[in-house]
């Protein structure tokens, strides 16, 4: 991969709102060259989507996230892709990943409550023919999401000591 393309992608990955003019300054390219390169990357599918990371806690939305690990049995002539495609169509599913180790697939799901997530797993995931077992882990707090720190470190406030 061309080093300039890599540089543009890294800039956009860190800040999807970076303008072609800002990227041009950082790369030494012209804004027009940057715009053309980005258009080509979007057209070829290298750039899939632009994303905003929202700290829902700060706006009072209380979503519950869970990581669900699945052990699956593959159907004849079908691989992991088939089960992944079936699962990622559910609107509750935020991500689907193929794993190595004890489990085969990992999902991240979002619901309005723990009960919503539990029912989703019990009614929509565990009932799939290929799913042998599930292990659900509820997310208690997210400190960092896609490289963005959501909660600043707490500062320890010490009481003054006098002698």
Describe this structure in words.
The mean pLDDT is 92. α2 packs across α3 (31-43). Helix content is 33%, strand content 21%. It has five helices and six strands; from the N terminus they run αααβαββαβββ. It folds into two domains: 3-44, Arc Repressor Mutant, subunit A, CATH 1.10.10; 57-145, 2-Layer Sandwich (Alpha-Beta Plaits). The chain is flat, with a radius of gyration of 21 Å. The strands form two sheets. Strands 2-3-1-4 form a four-stranded antiparallel beta sheet. The chain has a two-stranded antiparallel ribbon with strand order 5-6. By secondary structure, it is α+β, with helices and mostly antiparallel strands.
Features:
alpha+beta; Arc Repressor Mutant, subunit A; Alpha-Beta Plaits; 2 domains; four-stranded antiparallel β-sheet; DNA-binding
User: Main sheet, how many strands, which sense, barrel?
Assistant: 4 strands, antiparallel
Helix-strand pattern: HHHEHEEHEEE
List the total number of helices.
Answer: 5
Low-confidence sequence ranges: none
- How would you sum up the global shape? flat
- Tell me the Rg in angstroms: 21 Å
Structural class: alpha+beta
Predict the CATH topology of the largest domain: Alpha-Beta Plaits
| Helix percent band | 25-40%
Strand order of the largest sheet: 2-3-1-4
**N-to-C terminal Cα separation, in Å?**
64 Å
CATH class of the largest domain: Alpha Beta
The CATH architecture of the largest domain can be named as 2-Layer Sandwich
Query: What is the average per-residue confidence, as pLDDT, rounded to a whole number?
Result: 92
Please state roughly what percent of the residues sit in beta strands, choosing from under 5%, 5-15%, 15-25%, 25-35%, 35-45% or over 45%: 15-25%
CATH superfamily of the largest domain: Lrp/AsnC effector binding domain/regulation of amino acid metabolism (RAM) domain
User: How many DSSP E strands?
Assistant: 6
């Amino acid at each position: 991969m061309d080093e300039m393309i890599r540089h543009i992608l890294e800039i956009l990955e860190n800040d999807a709102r970076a303008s072609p003019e800002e990227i041009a300054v950082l790369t030494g390219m012209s804004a027009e060259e940057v715009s053309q390169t980005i258009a080509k990357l979007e057209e070829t599918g290298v750039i899939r989507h632009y994303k905003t990371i929202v700290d829902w806690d700060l706006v009072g939305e209380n979503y519950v996230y869970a990581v669900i690990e699945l052990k699956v049995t593959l159907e004849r002539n079908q691989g992991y892709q088939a089960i992944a495609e079936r699962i990622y169509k559910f609107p509750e599913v935020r991500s689907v990943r193929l794993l190595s180790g004890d489990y085969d697939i990992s999902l991240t799901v979002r619901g309005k409550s723990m009960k919503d997530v539990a029912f989703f797993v019990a009614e929509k995931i565990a009932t799939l023919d290929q799913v042998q077992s599930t292990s659900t882990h509820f997310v208690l707090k997210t400190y960092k999401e896609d490289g963005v720190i959501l909660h600043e470190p707490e500062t320890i406030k010490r009481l003054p000591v006098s002698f």
